[in-house]
Amino acid sequence: MEQFPEQASTNWIMATFIYTLGAVAVLLVVAGLVFIDKGLVRRRNVLDTTIQKIGAAMVGGLGTLLIGYPIWQWQFNQAFGVPQPFWQAVQDWWLGGAFTTTASRHIDPAALPEADVLQIFLVFFVTFTMATMALIHTGVVERIKPLPLYVMSFVVGAVLSPLVGYLCWGSLSPLTLRGTHDFDGIFPLYITAGTFVLVLAWRVGPRLGAFRPHPSGARPASHNAAFVGVGVLLILFALPFITIGSGYIVPDVGFFGISFTESGLGIVIVNLFASILGGAVVGLVLAHLRREPSWALLGPIAGVVMGGTLFDIGTAWACLLVGGLGPLVALGTAALLRKAQIDDPKVVPLALGPGILGALLTGFIEWGTPTGGYIGLEGQYAVGVGEITPWWQLAGVVATMLVAGVPALLMCLFFERFGGLRVDEEAELTGLDAAQWGVSNFADDLDPAAAPASSVIPPSRQAPEGTPTGGGLPV
């Protein structure tokens, strides 16, 4: 078999290592979400929550590995004039495809330059889907049945998340070429997950006791909210590596955003931390003013989501200020959800609200900035062919919400008709660890009468009836 040693150049090997690090770092986001939910669910649901989250992430990743990645590669085949661009992408990049199963040194650079990098990008997409599904599961913990969750996970991984990526994330995607701009995966990850959760949480209903007293006295209650801090730190540790993976590294030229915007490695990391610190400080202020610790713990995440579309092209000052708005937007989003009695205190407030408003603000802040295209191409695919505008940012938001929201509703209606979305009330009261697995991490969970006296909340510290528990971004 003919060999092409240029595919193994030092430059490409180094780029492959950097993208591998970014792809694997996404798994730390999944781990962080496990810790966050482990801390915020009732302790009798900790085991089942962990299993469901990891299971949903794995099934979603499998969908992307099997068939989802070709949907994203479709845009490149279109731009480079490949006949039957979608079908060829499927043939090349499904799990058994030519490019997926052939070592890079045996792939002609004329057909696929930097083959190792694009093969690793497949893994990047797999882990991205895993994070998306871990986030979606966070919005419906303690009450969704496993089968609907896993089926939805596969559909998200095989079709929905890659389709949003094809439309909005990539230098040659249809909306990017017209002016829609993303950098850190705000559209395919946060807005997609937030929209899906908005529909799913509405259809599956609130946890028992979330908004009104339940006859059993059941209500949502955190197991150990301090775990949230551990989860947030894991996510923050992963973000710089993921951020570097959200762009092009062109040897001897420089670093570009995923839409081939002018940028730099140092710039994106500085902007990332500006958004983190802006969200952290405003979240800390909110936590003390409202006496709701969740804002101090999750404020940095709101800041990152708020500024994610801006990291490659914005200034540090802009990212600091936009990131600082994140907790405030999350606070308003959480209030709207409570008013609508939709029980999702984390994902929609942290991902959907800041994701949408941050994307729209980028349209105003960077109005007219060139975006889209690919190096070496001309005409409608030339670098900088599109210009960022607020209305193209809005078009990306609407497209993403339709791609995620409509299938989410259809799948919910299907499962409501055939088998149901939600576990039965008895299992929810007993605890899903015991109901699903016949075990419990805590002996007293199986016998409420054996609960230690220290676990009882004194009447003077109990919230008024009907008050959502956990405050702020409540649990």
TrEMBL record:
Single biological process term from Gene Ontology: ammonium homeostasis
Ammonium transporter AmtB-like domain ranges (all copies): 21-440
Single Gene Ontology MF annotation: ammonium channel activity
Keywords of the record: Ammonia transport, Membrane, Transmembrane, Transmembrane helix, Transport
GO cellular component term, pick one: plasma membrane
Residues that span the membrane, as ranges: 12-34, 54-72, 117-136, 148-167, 187-205, 226-250, 265-287, 294-311, 317-337, 349-370, 390-415
InterPro entries attached to this UniProt entry: Ammonium/urea_transptr, NH4_transpt_AmtB-like_dom
Annotated localization: Membrane
SUPFAM superfamilies: Ammonium transporter
Highest taxon, organism lineage: Bacteria
PANTHER family given in the database record: AMMONIUM TRANSPORTER
Family note: Belongs to the ammonia transporter channel (TC 1.A.11.2) family.
Entry protein name: Ammonia channel protein AmtB
Source species of the chain: Geodermatophilus sabuli
Organism classification: Bacteria, Bacillati, Actinomycetota, Actinomycetes, Geodermatophilales
